[in-house]
Amino acid sequence: MFELLCFEICALAILVILLFALEFRNKISDKAGKKLVKIIIVSILAVSSNIISYIIDGKQAYIVPGYLLTGIYCILRPVAFYLYADYIVEITGYRHAVQSLGRKALHQIPIALSVLAVLFDPLTKWFYYYDETGLYFEGDYYLWLFLMPAIYGLYAINCIIKCVPLTGTVKSLSLSSSVIFTLLAILYQYFNPNTVIETLAFSLSILFIILFIDNPKDKVEKNSGLLSMDEYTRELQLAFFTNRPIDIIHVNITNFKMIEETLKYNNVSVFEKEAGEIIRSVVSNEKDEIYAFNLKSGRFRLILDNNNNDRTLNVANKLIEKFNTEVNVNDTLVFVETSIIITQCPKQINIMEDFVAYGKIEHFFEKPGTVVFTEDVINTKEYKKHISIGRRLEQGIINNKFEVAYEPMYNVATDCYDEVDTILRLRDDDFNYIEKNELLSAMERNGLASRIGRQYISDVCEFIASDDFKGTGIKKVNIRLSTAMCLQKQFAQRLYSTISSYDVDPKLICFEIDESSASDDQKTYEENVNLLHDKGFSFSLDNYGSGYTNVITLSTVPLETIRFEKSFASDWNNEKIRSIFVNTVDMVKAIGKKVIIEDVNSKEHAEILKKMGCDYLKGTIFSRPMLKDRLLAFYKELNEAK
Length: 642
Hints:
This protein is α/β, with parallel strands linked by helices. Helices cover 56% and strands 15% of the residues. It has 26 helices and 17 strands. An 8-stranded mixed barrel has the order 10-11-12-13-14-15-16-17, surrounded by 4 helices. A hairpin with a 4-residue loop joins strand 10 and strand 11.
């Protein structure tokens, strides 16, 4: 008896462990995960009934229970395989193709036939029967009960093959092998009835998928409990590939930077948890499945299958109502401002592809407390300009149109130009340049900052390592690091390795960082900055006064210089602004930092700044940005004039 049941007992143990792991450890929240739980529960019931039927086999008093238990097993087995095939459809993204009522009904036929076979079997004894002593026997048509789950297995393989271009060859082969493994086990058990391995193979197949192909734990973002950004990207790809109609709700917390500054980075995760609970409370009350994602930095996304304006608008309005209020985060009340944009696909799939390719849609429409459709965004001047810049960036990479310009900085104390700023520029076919801040912003939004930045840094290091540079007398070169770079794990190690390959002295390089870098992910930011500082590089804070950097940040981050945002000192006729500016400069000097003032365009302005104790000045009255050859000529003229 034990030899017959050992495989079934092992299968039951695996299924029970998986159920507990999924329900109590990983906290399944996505649709595929819920289907996985259903598969396991049905399989546990099926194998349990089969084990009990084996135990009572041959006992005359249990003929009726034997029929019932065997019938339950014969019905639940194709149900489990149906759910298994449905799960495969879900994770391959093929579900849109099977949503019609006709297809759904067709998929239920094997289960319906199994039910009919079990109901009429006591009369016909075609499939299985018990004799008068209680012994179990297989009927002449028992093969049919094996074909039922096999049909669903073959259907699953068909779905996998159709989605190979999206899921990839490796994942598709892995999924196919797990299904084929189960089908072979069914075939083996048919020819060897005393070796009951079908359920064990089925449970091992599920375990293999969870561990190596579609681990539910990896899908969920730990702070909010919502699905991760990678899952959002994947879900969009699935929808585009299958042309599935979906509505996308873009939930954007417009004052997220201010919330970060109020809570500090160690409490931001608590806020994300609260935001996740708000979204889940809205989603849980909806009849149809809604996928919710956390894209970080106060951006959340919801995907609703099928275009339904009334339903989508109702969900969006509920979210606005829930979010635009005060949220208690560790006894700190923060007011949340939220805007929502709705995109419909595939009707607006071209628009959505632009959003994916060229950046965050919320940059173009952030009106707290409002719900709008994408038509309200795409007709704005700002959006059209952004898309135009995004396309120019793509062409710039393809046609190698990026170049580095250098702008000498005037040292007030030494009355010379011993430092230079580097400026990344994109020159299009008409020799027009994108304005510096627009270029950096566009690079950040469309995910090209790191890719372009690596080449930019390599070009600058190559120049610093050249003999031409050594004759200029330049003591420091300022290189701008994007926010995206500063927030990458292990970025500092990779950057140091790149610079070391050019044999450049770290003391020759000062990295400019934007103050927004210090507020997105404080821990990663500090790790990267401190490691590079320990290697001998210096740092300058750019655009001070345009964001939320406080005095604590200025005193704790290893900054050498502070660059004032150009508009800070522009309105000299306003006594209050002038007073704030003067006192801020004094404060920065008092904590041992040097002051850089940009966009100085008049001699009168320059003289005032010199008297205030500013250390470096740059602007049109000193020099304009120039390419490398012109820069070398500029310093040659200065050196010859001495």
